[in-house]
Amino acid sequence: MEEILSIEHLSKSFTIHNLDKHIDALRDVSLSLKKGEFAGITGKSGSGKSTIFKCIYRTYAPQKGAIRYHSLKFGPIDLAEAGEREMIYLRKHEIGYVSQFLNAMPRTTARELVGQAVLEMGCDRDYAEKEAQTILAHFELAPDLWDSYPATFSGGEKLRLNIARAMVKRPRLLLLDEPTASLDVAAKWRVRALIEQLMREGTTMMGIFHDLAFMENLCTRKYTVQDGRLWETSALSIC
Known about the structure:
Blueprint: E1 3-16, E2 21-34, E3 38-42, H1 49-56, E4 64-71, E5 75-78, H2 84-93, E6 95-98, H3 110-119, H4 125-138, H5 155-167, E7 173-177, H6 185-201, E8 204-208, H7 212-215, E9 221-226, E10 229-232
Parallel strand pairs: 3-8, 3-9, 6-7, 7-8
Antiparallel strand pairs: 1-2, 1-4, 4-5, 9-10
Helix pairs in contact: 3-4, 3-5
């Protein structure tokens, strides 16, 4: 099976200058994922889980190591060294990121936000409108919210919209940073249904979770992060 992502000896540190403090956030992290695999990651808050994702998405630039991604457009590319133009393209077309927080353009409705994600893929407006409506309905966002501004949404509604915007693009690689944190049980299982569908379609995923029941029988690989180090494990634990 085709390897999509290979992280090799990744390290990331931060310096807090006003406190004269150095923090090693990631230490020699390595993993590899094949097409359609789902890596579930657990660990205490502050252990470095989200930093791994931000290095892959290049919100953070790592100090050491390689992040080798097999792109449809660029072929094998090291995300740790990729240029800004390549990263902008990959974020639009191949790599999705779902965080707990929704960052949306002001005066952009929920329907427009999701539709724009589809338009970025080069699809026509009619298709984008249809896909936006389908996924908003799947996550049971009330139709009277579709043409409202997300700033007025509850935390759970914002999170569902954030997930919808990322998943509607069916990315090649999808990073899920605690995507079910503020969702009720029914909404969590709607997220799971789409994750399972994307896996069947070949999307490769990494997810950070505290809800171990959600991960059960879903993840093909399981890891825990402790003090910036990544360990593959068969027994999931947040400790």
